[in-house]
Amino acid sequence: MKHLIPEFEKLRERFPAGFESSLVLPCVRRIQEDRGYVADEDIEQLAAYLGVPQIQIEEVLSFYTMFRRKPIGRWHLQFCRNISCSMNGAERILAHVEHRLGIRPGETTPDGRYTLSVVECLGSCGTAPMMMVNEGYHENLTHARVDELLEGLK
Amino acid sequence: MPGRQLIMSFPVTATSHSLAEYRARGGYASLEKTLGTLQPADVVKEVTAAGLQGRGGAAFSVGRKWQVVTYDDGQPHYLIANADEGEPGTFKDRWILENNPHVLLESMLIASYALNVRNCFVYIRGEFDLPYRRLAGAVEEAYAAHLFGERILGSGFCCDIVVYRGAGAYVAGEASGLISSLEGKKSYPRNRPPRLTVKGLYQRPTVVNNVESLSNIAWIIANGATAYKAVGTPKSPGTRLFSVSGHVNKPGVYEVELGYPWMKFLDEDCGGIQGGRAIKCVVPGGVSSKVLTGADIAELTLSHEALWDAGSTLGSGGMIVIAEGTCMVRLLQVLMRFYHHESCGQCTPCRHGTGWLHRIMDRIVAGEGRPEDIERLYYISKFNDGTTICGLGDAAGYACSGILDKFRDEFEYYIEHKRSRYDGNLECLRSS
User: Which of B172, B271, B356, B406 is the one with CA 20 to 30 A from B137?
Assistant: First the structure.
């Protein structure tokens, strides 16, 4: 993570003095964007850089759903299956995607292309059903739209 | 349109979120008025007199929350806009962040002036992508126009803002959990007292307000408390942004003047129910509010007092409409899975209670329910209530007992026959 320190310095300037601990979440997020996951050495180096205990960073990594300690597939498909999405076909579309990719939620295709996850409400209830592909929201999903979308993800 | 519009009062276009267009709509005039003519105490007085109630779920008076902060107690104060919108069914703050971010920023500047805040924050949920980009873009525009930073608009008022992204935790939407998260930790809620307005972020007085609550401030300052109270009902002044989803033909975010007839809103504005079915029930304001049946809501208006009288609440404004024919057993299973997944694990009754509720629901849906399961669901729901630091465990219990109260017979049927009385679907399949 050391090459990100100049960026972290800029981030620090936006916070009031004494807010180093607050930088844990944004720094972890940036490290994950950079490496794809957070490695042991990142934890050690970030703890030393921010002057926070390592256990605080480890707790954050295990508590929040968006952080991960291991690499995943190139395209991370995250399906909402909370009630508004389920009421508009999420379960049916998820089953279709599982069948098409041959994986279950929590798994990655053998070619490392897709990782499938199920998540709780992402605030797209009015445009349900929805999934995230990496950072982006894809809403009002149908079988045809999902097929088209997956074709485009290489 | 269901009544007057204060926040969604303009047509959304590809550029209507920009500073230039916000200014053309009269934006930042309230900030100029505040810095030029009002004392901080005047702002607090005006907001209190307007009777603005919190829009995050609890409907607590914004003015009364602000009054706890002593303007010149010699310590830093913080203001946080809660944009960790995660209550299932709720996506109204997302509308503001995407389409009118400057109304939030202007309102936060006015609030910061009133509360002697030098540093304010927007805590936005980590998954939000476009809302984050729109908000961050608006912040950059505002800095470039010297609306944040030192000596704003030539006054002595200085204020900085940070947009802080969450990382995926429902409980971070609870104000004290949010503060733990903003301190860079797991979002464990905290015991109160002390109130957050006494000891909040880094143990300093902190006001946490919902995005929509704050976004009303600019209008209140521009038009005055009396004009604000003239909108809505005496006990529910103003408007609310309802995010409507589920089995309606036209889901979306609607600004509704409080006191508007509920069924008229659903029939005329939301286009009625999919497939022309009857309404089985409605989740009025996020899944933590108790469901009301179609018969319950037939004569109701959308106001806090009407919902309280009916034994529920407008909550977060996340309205989920459920059509006749939907299996409530499956629906409760989804909800219990959600609360179990989101329990932070800090308090024993919630950590174990939500898991227990979830396991019982899985068992019933698998056809292995036992006759005593219904009483056990009630028992756990009651046991959770009031025994935990935050409201998550309580809410799981309200959602559970709320559905059992209205649809107990469906659960009895499922347990006895080992299958749903309906087709077991949550979808309102148009062909059927």
Answer: B172
Asked whether residue A108 is domain-assigned, the answer is yes
**Nearest alpha carbon to residue B89 among B359, B335, B297, B396:** B335
CB contact under 8 A, A87 and B427: yes
With an 8 Å Cβ cutoff, are A126 and B202 in contact? no
Taking CB atoms and an 8 Å limit, are B202 and A19 in contact across chains? yes
CA distance B174 to chain A (A): 15
Planar angle of CA B149, B151, B153, nearest 5 degrees: 100
Residues A42 and A93 in one domain: no
CB-nearest to B169 from A23, A52, A64 is A64
Structural domain of residue B361, as residue ranges?
328-417
Task: Give yes or no for a cis peptide into B88 (omega within 30° of 0).
Answer: no
- Cα end-to-end distance, chain B, whole Å: 31
The tens digit of pLDDT for each residue in B77-111 reads 999 999 999 999 999 999 999 999 999 999 999 99
- Which of B:195-234 have CB within 8 Å of A? 202
Q: How far apart are CA B104 and CA B279, in angstroms?
A: 35
Query: Are B405 and B368 found together in one domain?
Result: yes
Indicate if B258 and B381 belong to the same structural domain: no
Q: What is the ipTM of this complex?
A: 0.97
User: Is A69 a domain residue?
Assistant: no
Is B168 in the same domain as B59? yes
Q: Which two tokens stand for residue B301?
A: 């208006």
Contact A92 B427 (CB under 8 A): yes
* A·B CB contacts under 8 A: 148
Ranges assigned E (strand) in B317-423? 318-323
8 Å CB contact of B246 and A67? no
